[in-house]
Amino acid sequence: MVMIQLTIIRIEGYGHWTLTLGSDREAQLQMLQARIYHDVQRLFSEQGALVFFNRFDEYFAVTRGLGPEQHAAINRELERLHPELKMSMTVGTGGTALEANMRAYEARNQQGKTLLPDAKSFAGGNGKDGYVQIMHIDVDSSTKLGAKLSPFEVTALVMRIYSRLADEFLRLKSLTFFLGGDNFMVISNGVTAAQAEAIINKLTAETGIKFNCGIGVGGTGRKAAEAATKALDTIRELRDKGKILPIYEIRCP
């Protein structure tokens, strides 16, 4: 079975620590969360991984090929940059993103609150024998929505779409993340183009909104996301030439 590896990164004791900042803390927390995300994304992406928000105190990283040494090095740098906080990392591998997520969750329960995954977490071979598949989905001609709806109404609509996408892809054991704007990415190992097309057609029927879906397959999270975005760009280029394809796939090493 082709395996995918996910790492869940969490800020430990974050809720309790925030209380020490007093009631006038929200602006500080928003700035801190932005800095932490920047640092987590930078450090993992330098290793070919890709990080998604789960919550502001928790992140998911697609970490195919990264072993204990790379995780330890990233953790040391995060501790240097944010000495006031403690970060934990748990790793899971599986045939689907949901399975890898569950394995990482189980590893956390076994490890307690140790900061780094133990060697047993990498028994699946760091996912080196597998690949990563990511789907990049956006709203087709989203600028037209802005002509009919106010900015916040557009946001509310996009959040409803996000919820529906997350539910539909979760049934296929895939994990969906909101990227901002009208863009979403799905860690979608095992999902076919036909299954993805059925989902976006279903949402189009429900909302009257059309979607584009670029599928990327690559050796790392970054490579797969790059291929998915390139596939999405290709859909736009083909449309300009009069060829309508809502789904397009690109594979790279």
CATH topology of the largest domain: Alpha-Beta Plaits
Element order: H for helix, E for strand: EHHEEHEHEHHEEHEHE
Strand order of the largest sheet: 6-7-5-8-9
What is the CATH class of the largest domain? Alpha Beta
Main sheet makeup: 5 strands, mixed
Write the layout of secondary structure elements.
Blueprint: E1 4-12, H1 14-19, H2 26-45, E2 50-55, E3 58-62, H3 68-81, E4 86-94, H4 97-111, E5 132-139, H5 143-148, H6 151-170, E6 175-180, E7 183-187, H7 193-207, E8 211-218, H8 221-240, E9 247-251
Parallel strand pairs: 8-9
Antiparallel strand pairs: 1-3, 1-4, 2-3, 5-7, 5-8, 6-7
Helix pairs in contact: 2-3, 6-7
Structure overview:
With 253 residues, the protein is an alpha+beta fold. Helix content is 46%, strand content 24%. The protein has helices spanning 14-19, 26-45, 68-81, 97-111, 143-148, 151-170, 193-207, 221-240, and strands spanning 4-12, 50-55, 58-62, 86-94, 132-139, 175-180, 183-187, 211-218, 247-251. The strands form 2 sheets. The protein has a 5-stranded mixed β-sheet with strand order 6-7-5-8-9. Strands 2-3-1-4 form a 4-stranded antiparallel β-sheet. Helix 2 packs antiparallel against helix 3 (68-81). It is globular.
